[in-house]
Write a structure and sequence with these properties.
The protein is α+β, with helices and mostly antiparallel strands. The chain has 4 helices and 6 strands. The longest helix is centred in the middle third of the chain and has 15 residues. The radius of gyration is 18 Å and the shape is globular.
């Protein structure tokens, strides 16, 4: 589980989608995010705060760091989410849209007040907007990762800045 430090196994809880863990004044429920890059990825929904910790789902490549998703221009956010989804989850273009839609509906039923993604600033009150955007991804043009020429251009630019 970890090569950086020992994990106290008596404090570890393995949860599968739908499993819950009571932790004091709240219940944490394991949720399979609609987008994931690893078959073991699990998001967590906190029923007290109504926050969905979505792992990589709802990530975005944005032009600059931001304190929250509202600080990112709508167009930049939509393009960034599409870019992230296509690069981090290239399989999204191969799914049956109705099956994918069922995964989105699972999050919709939770109706989280806030989404915390590993690759997006906090997003308050944006769940439905984000779910509608994700619903378009199976129909979108697949992303193409940068090639060697792009890497060389980036390295040359970095060299020029130093």
């Amino acid at each position: 589980m970890s090569t950086a430090w020992p994990v106290p196994m008596d404090r570890v809880h393995w949860l599968n989608p739908g499993d819950s863990l009571n932790v004091g004044d709240r219940k944490l429920t394991a949720v399979r995010p609609p987008l994931f890059d690893n078959p073991t990825t699990i998001g967590v929904y906190d029923d007290k705060s109504e926050v969905f910790f979505s792992a990589d789902c709802f990530g975005a490549i944005i032009p600059a760091p931001a304190q929250n998703a509202d600080d990112v221009a709508e167009g930049d956010l939509a393009r960034g989410m599409a870019g992230w989804a296509g690069l981090d989850n290239p399989w999204v273009h191969m799914v049956k849209p109705m099956e994918f839609s069922r995964g989105l509906d699972g999050i919709r039923q939770l109706a989280p007040k806030m989404i915390l993604s590993a690759h997006l600033p906090p997003a308050m009150g944006r769940s439905e907007q984000f779910l509608e955007l994700l619903a378009t991804f199976p129909y979108s043009t697949p992303s193409i990762a940068p090639n060697q020429t792009a890497l060389e251009q980036i390295l040359a630019q970095m060299k020029g800045e130093s």
